[in-house]
Each structure stands twice: as structure tokens, then as C-alpha cells.
Write a sequence for this structure.
């Protein structure tokens, strides 16, 4: 893990939605970061603007893909990058999804909006190791069809009828929408899993995480087998500055992925 | 795998069996209008396979789709509450197989047997509450930038 940003080149840019872009990064020189695990994040430095935490949305041998939504100055600067531009990268940071926890069990992946980005490497890893797990489910909620990241890949997954059961739902359907309409939790009714023998991975807005975790619990999934990714204001990413503290947890170090058995009480605390 | 609102978990076995004795198997082709907003709510369904869209008539425009319902879910609750008029329309998105129930017969049975009636009322009420809560959560526009409120 590097303390200083390692220069990386933008080798590819792909627009996912109106405000979301995936950028592919490769080391600019001989120095490279240690391998990332699905669910971990990097601190991405837009030179001259600032640094933000961004999860990896695809992990290649030398390249990393980060999917960034333009919601602030730094993220907007990252979304505006073109191939050949340079950024600084620190990492890998935090806990990963830990797919090995699902060995021999059904896998339920639930993504809300851009929360699909950190879950995508997990889904790809699960597809690569499908014999190690039971049935694999990917359930996605989005605002509209146009806000669904990786739309082509999701549509292909949804229509593959293969190793992956993929369902998608939107809040507001537009003409041509092919999936469901409503909350992402409604997709659990059609998912293929035995709750008592399942591991779930959930990422999205925290209201959505809480609703999904409660639904999974009600169906019989154990709290410690519901892995959720939380987000706070990560600055140092090394557990020193305390900006990302949530209760007794420093999310940059102890998270972002933690079990619902720990997360439930943390999300019940009202912010000042 | 069950949810709090599906028939299998929402009704005691005895009452579920009693209700299912009134069921009739039906199927709808994709695109079939199952019921129309404002019409008399004289039936209801439990979806076995397929997907049904609930929609709201918007004068001069295409109907606005509010929600989709799938396997195990109750299609229609207006039959349970006066004035027994559909509040939304419903259309089969895909081929649908469902159990169909005559609302008048079920309401009569509820009136005859208070225990059965209470079970049905609890089930339907739970479905309505669940959908109300889901609608409230969607009001937050969770997936929008800064969805569900500004940072503290």
C-alpha cells in the first residue's frame, strides 16, 4: 500500500450515464499498486483539484477501472478526463467483499444505482468461480433506465438465463424498459436462493441498504452473512484522520464492507 | 424464501387452504388489460408466474406505470374496501398465470367467519402497508445525486 499517489495514465474513458463515467487507469511508470480485491477502494487524485475515494469497478492485470459520478468538484474533474491524462492513485484500501465467505452457498448481490460499480468485480469473480458457489443472483435498482450503469452488460446478464439470475427494477420506467418497476427489494421474490444457506452483498444508498438487509433478515439470511458497503467522508484512507468514523468503526480501515451484524446498529444512530 | 406479504407466509395454513379452495386458474397473454381504474373491483388474483404492471391513467398521455408485481404477490386490494372500485389499472407485461378469486364470495366468507375475515384483512392490510412504505421510499428519489437528503 502506497502512502504517496502513484502516477497513472487514463487509457480509456466510457460514458455510462449522463453523469457517470468509467475511467480505465494503468501505471504511468514502473511503480504499480498492489492488487485490489473486489470491494476495496483507491484514493484517486485529480491533480490540482483534489482527492476522493473511488471503488474499483473492474480489476485487470495491470489496469483498474473506476466508475465515477460527477457530484462534486473532484468527481466532475475525473469525469472530464480524456485518454492520456494523468491522475494519482493510492491504495488498495479497506475491506473487500470477501467472496470466499459465500463458498458453497447461494449468492445474492443487491445493487442500488451507482452501487453496482463496486459490486461488478464481485459478480465477475463469482461468475469465474461459479462451481465454488450455489446459485448466483444479481438484483439491481435504478432511478430510470437511463441511469442504469453498464446497461449493455446488465441487459446481457438479464437475458442470458445462464449461471446468473439477473433482475432489474427502476423507479420510473421509460418507453422500452424491459424490467420491473418498484423497489429493489421486490426482486427478492423472484431470486433463486435458500436464505438459510446464502450470503448477500449489498451496496447503494443507505436507506436502500437498510431496507434490503431487513428484508433479507426477515427471509432468514443470517446478519453476519449480509455484507454491506458503507460510505463516509474518507480523507486519509489509513485510519488516522477520523473523518470516516461511524460509531467505533473507521470505515476507510475497518470498512467499507462490513457485516450487517455490525452495521445495523451504526445505521440506527441519528446524525446531528 | 418468503416475504411478509406473500400468501404462503401471510395467512395461517387453515385459512390459506380455505381461500385456495375458491381459486380458479387463469392466464393472461402479454398486453392483456386485467382491470381498469375506476371500474368495479369484483375479483382479485395471486400471481403464479409472469409480471403485471400497475398504472395510473394520465389524461392525454400514455398511462404512467407505478409498480410491477410478480410471483406470489396479490394483484388487487380495492375489492376489500368500499367502494370496491379499482384505484389503478393493471396490464400483463408478460404471459401471466394466476389464481383468480371472486371478491364477493371471499367477502361473504369473511363476514360469516370472523377469524377467517381477520386473517384476510390482516394480509391485505399488510400488502397495502408494504406498498405504501415502498412508495414513500421511492419518494426520496434515493438514486438521485444527494438522494435521500443532504449530508448531515
Amino acid at each position: 500500500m502506497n502512502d504517496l499517489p502513484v502516477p497513472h495514465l487514463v487509457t480509456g474513458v466510457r460514458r455510462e450515464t449522463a453523469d457517470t463515467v468509467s475511467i480505465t487507469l494503468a501505471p504511468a511508470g514502473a511503480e504499480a499498486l498492489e492488487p485490489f480485491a473486489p470491494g476495496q477502494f483507491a484514493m484517486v487524485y485529480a491533480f490540482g483539484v483534489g482527492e476522493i475515494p473511488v471503488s474499483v469497478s473492474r480489476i485487470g492485470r495491470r489496469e483498474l477501472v473506476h466508475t465515477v459520478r460527477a457530484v462534486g468538484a473532484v468527481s466532475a474533474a475525473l469525469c472530464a478526463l480524456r485518454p492520456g491524462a494523468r491522475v494519482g492513485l493510492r491504495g488498495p484500501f479497506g475491506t473487500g467483499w470477501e467472496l470466499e465467505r459465500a463458498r458453497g452457498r447461494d449468492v445474492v448481490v443487491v445493487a442500488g444505482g451507482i452501487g453496482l460499480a463496486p459490486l461488478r468485480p464481485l459478480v465477475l469473480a463469482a461468475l469465474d468461480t461459479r462451481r465454488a458457489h450455489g446459485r448466483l443472483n444479481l438484483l439491481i435498482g435504478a432511478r430510470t433506465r437511463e441511469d442504469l450503469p453498464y446497461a449493455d452488460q446488465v441487459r446481457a446478464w438479464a437475458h442470458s438465463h445462464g449461471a446468473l439470475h439477473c433482475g432489474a427494477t427502476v423507479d420510473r420506467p421509460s418507453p422500452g424498459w424491459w424490467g420491473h418497476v418498484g423497489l429493489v427489494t421486490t426482486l427478492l421474490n423472484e431470486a433463486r436462493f435458500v436464505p438459510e444457506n446464502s450470503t448477500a452483498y449489498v451496496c447503494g444508498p443507505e436507506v436502500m441498504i437498510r431496507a434490503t438487509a431487513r428484508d433479507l433478515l426477515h427471509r432468514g439470511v443470517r446478519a453476519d452473512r449480509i455484507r454491506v458497503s458503507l460510505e463516509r467522508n474518507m480523507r486519509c484512507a489509513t485510519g488516522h484522520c477520523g473523518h470516516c468514523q461511524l460509531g467505533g468503526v473507521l470505515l476507510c480501515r475497518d470498512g467499507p464492507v462490513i457485516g450487517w451484524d455490525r452495521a445495523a446498529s451504526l445505521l440506527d444512530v441519528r446524525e446531528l | 424464501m418468503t416475504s411478509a406479504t406473500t400468501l404462503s407466509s401471510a395467512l395461517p395454513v387453515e385459512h390459506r387452504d380455505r381461500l385456495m379452495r375458491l381459486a380458479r386458474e387463469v392466464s393472461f397473454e402479454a398486453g392483456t388489460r386485467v382491470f381498469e381504474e375506476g371500474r368495479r373491483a369484483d375479483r382479485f388474483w395471486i400471481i403464479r408466474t409472469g409480471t403485471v404492471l400497475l398504472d395510473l391513467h394520465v389524461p392525454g398521455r400514455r398511462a404512467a406505470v407505478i409498480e410491477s408485481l410478480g410471483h406470489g404477490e396479490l394483484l388487487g386490494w380495492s375489492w376489500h374496501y368500499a367502494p370496491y372500485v379499482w384505484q389503478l389499472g393493471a396490464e400483463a407485461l408478460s404471459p401471466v398465470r394466476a389464481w383468480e378469486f371472486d371478491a364477493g364470495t371471499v367477502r361473504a366468507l369473511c363476514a360469516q367467519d370472523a377469524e377467517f375475515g381477520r386473517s384476510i384483512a390482516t394480509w391485505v392490510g399488510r400488502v397495502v402497508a408494504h406498498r405504501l412504505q415502498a412508495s414513500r421510499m421511492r419518494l426520496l428519489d434515493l438514486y438521485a445525486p444527494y438522494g435521500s437528503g443532504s449530508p448531515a
